[in-house]
Batch of 2 targets.
Target 1
Amino acid sequence: MSDFFETQAIRTQTERSQFFEHSTPLYLTSSFVFEDAEDMRASFAEEKQRNLYSRFSNPNTTEFVEKIVKMEGAESGYAFATGMSAVFSTFAALLNSGDHIVSSRSVFGSTHSLFTKFLPKWNIETSYFKVNEPNKIESLIQPNTKILYAETPTNPAVDILDLELLGKLAKKHNLLLIIDNCFATPYLQNPIKFGADLVIHSATKLIDGQGRVLGGVTVGKADLVREVYLFSRNTGPAMSPFNAWVLSKSLETLAVRVEKHCENALKVAAFLEGNSNVQLVKYPFLKSHPQYEIAKKQMRLGGNVIAFEIKGGINAGRKFLNKIKMCSLSANLGDTRTIVTHPASTTHSKLSIEDRLEVGITDGLVRCSIGLENVEDVINDLKQALEI
Ligand SMILES: *Cc1c(COP(=O)(O)O)cnc(C)c1O
C-alpha cells in the first residue's frame, strides 16, 4: 500500500463481497453468523480475527478506523458514536480512582465539564495550564499524574500548543500524552510524530465535513487502544455502521477539502487583518499569530478556523452576527458552509468574565469556521457585516 495520504484514504478498503462491488457497501447488520460450534468458540476466544457483533466491530467501522490509523501513523484504533464518547471512554478506560490529569485550560466545553463535574466523582482530579504558559506544566505534575492532555489549535481562540514540547515532557515524566486533533484533522497534523500516545478526533467536524453525522475515534499505541476497546465493547459507545460508511467516504476527499478550506481561510484572515473594524486576527498561518513558528513546525497548513476581535466589545459582536446574511450562525464547525459564532454572548455566556478571559474569549471575539463557498462571497458577507 502507498505511503501517500490521498491514496490510503481512497484505497484502504474492506474486502470485496461476492458481488465485486467497487465502492464499499453499507453493512447494516447488528451481528454476524458462525459456521459451527467450534468456529463460534474460537471467534469468541479471539483466536480468529472476525466480526462477532457490531458493538465490537463491523466492516464499515473497521474500514473507517483503518484509514485513520494509517493517516495518523498509529498502531490501532476504535470508532465511537461521537467525539465526546471517544474522549470519555478513553479516560474511563485508562484511569483509576486517585489518578491525576494535567490539561491545557483551553479544551472543548464538554471535555472541560468532564474534568470539572464528572471525573471528580471517581476521585480523578485535573490541573490546568494556560496555553501561553507551557513552562508551568512541570510544576503541575504530581506523583499520581497519569495523563497529559491538550488540543491544538484550541477552540475558540485558535491558540497553538507546541506538540514537540508536550511530547518531551510526557516522556520525561512517564505520562501518557493524549491529543485531541479535531481542529487539525490527520491531514494537517500528526501528533504521534511528536510523541503522542493516543490521538482523539471528533469526526463530526472536518472529517465528515458536510455537517451530516456525529462520530469520534481514538487511535494510537496498540496496548492502550486495547484497553479502550475492552472498556468500549462492554459499555457500548460504538459508532453506527451507517455513520462509519458515511465517514469513510468523507475521508476519501479529506485532503482536497482541507486544502481548499485552508486556502479560503488564509484569504479571509488576510482580509480581516486589513479591516479597520477588526482589532486582532488569530490564524495559525498568519505571521502575526503569536505561535506562528510552532504552527509552521507542526502543521501542514493553518486550518479552517479564524478567531478575530471586533472593535466595540459584546454589543459590536452581537450586531455583527445580526448583520450576517449568507454565513450560518451555528455552533458546529468544519462544514462546507461558513459558520460564525460569538462565544461571549452564546456558547460561553455562562462563564464569568475572568474565566472567559483565561481561555482567550474576549467580549468582541468572533470565531469563523471557513467553508467551501467561493471565498469572494464569504469575504463580502463579513465585510458588509463589519460596517458598523
Ligand atoms: C466537537 C468537538 C468535540 C466533541 O465532538 P462531538 O462529536 O460533538 O461529540 C471534542 N473536541 C473538539 C476539539 C471538538 O471540536
Target 2
Amino acid sequence: MTGYKGLIERYRERLPVADDARIITLGEGSTPLIRLGNIPEAEDRGIELHAKFEGLNPTGSFKDRGMTMAITQAVSEGSQAVLCASTGNTSASAAAYAARAGLDCYVLIPDGKIAMGKLAQAMIHGSMVIQVEGNFDDGMRLVKQIAAEAPITLVNSVNPYRLQGQKTAAFEIVDELGRPPDFHCLPVGNAGNISAYWTGYCEYAGITTAVSNFLHGQCPYQHDAVTDKPPRMLGYQSSGAAPFLRGGFVEEPETVASAIRIGRPQSWDLAWAASRESEGWFDEFDDAEILAVQGLLAASEGIFCEPASAVSVAGALRDIRTGKIPPGSTVVCTLTGHGLKDPDIAMQQGSAVVKKVSADLDAVKQAILGDR
Ligand SMILES: *Cc1c(COP(=O)(O)O)cnc(C)c1O
C-alpha cells in the first residue's frame, strides 16, 4: 500500500505484533474527529461536542481496527480460516481482511434483520455466509463451540487482538485534541468497544486498571504515560436490548439498531469494570429516539451514521440537557458505522420523501420555488 498508514504501522510500539509479522491492512484508522457545531443544546452550554466518525473505515465500521490485528495475528499463527458470529459489521470486516490475507472466512448471521449493506459485503468478499435460525447470541454460542474443536480462528471481540486494535481510536482522539475528553459516549452491544477505548485512554494516561490488566495480561508489552486523567465512559443501549440497564442478560433482544441487538454481551465484566473505574454510567433509548438522532445528525451536521451509532449522540444530548454532563465539558461520541450499511432504515424515515413531478419546467419550478 502507498500513502495511507494503517493503525498497526501508526501505533506499532503499543500493539502486540511480532517483528516479522505480515501486516494485513486496508489503511484503517485515522478517521476524522468532527466538531458537531450545529446542535444548540451543546453550543448554548459551551460544550465542545465531537464525533469520531468510524463509518469512514475501509469497510464502513470500527470493526476494521480490531480486524487488522486479529487477521494479522491469525496469519502469523499459520491459521488457514477464520470464523465469526455477527450482527453484520464484524462479518463484513472479517470477510474483507480474510480475502486480503487469502484465508477462508465463515460468518454466522442471525435470521433476518441483517442490514443489506453488511450482507452484501460479506458475500462479495467471498466468505461463506451461514444464516442460523436464531439471534446473534445463538450464533455466538455456536462459533465458540466450533472454534474450540476445529483449527479455525475466532475473530469476534472475544479474540483479545480485536480489542487491542480498537483501543487505538482512543489514542487518535487524544493525539488530535491534545488531551483526553471529559466524557466519551459509545453505543454498547457486546461491550468490546467500550472496554477497548477505556484501555486505550488508561494506557495513554499510564494508569493500570482491571480492564487493562486483563487485556495486557493476554498480550503483554511496555507502555508509558503521556496524558492526564482519562474520560468518564458513558455506555448507551437500545431499550429492547439493554442488559446493562436490566442488570442481567436479555433473552429476546429487539431493536431497530441491529448492530446492538445483543442480549448476552461477551465483554460483560470488562464493560462493568470500565464503567465503574471511569465513574461513568449506562443509559437506554427507544427506537424512536434513536432514529430521531440519526436524522438530526444527517440533516443538521451532514453525517450519515447507522442507527446503532446514533445512540451515542442520543446519550450525550440527554445527559447535556439534564446537566449530568456539565457546561464547558469536552465530549466525544463514537459513530461506529456508516449509514449506507442500512439503507432500508434511512428510506423509512419520515424525512426521506421523494417528490414526483412531470418532466416540464412549470412542474419542477413549482416543486422547488413553491417550497421556498
Ligand atoms: C459492533 C457495533 C457496535 C457495538 O460494539 P460492541 O463492541 O459490540 O459493544 C455498535 N455499533 C456498530 C455500528 C457496530 O458495528
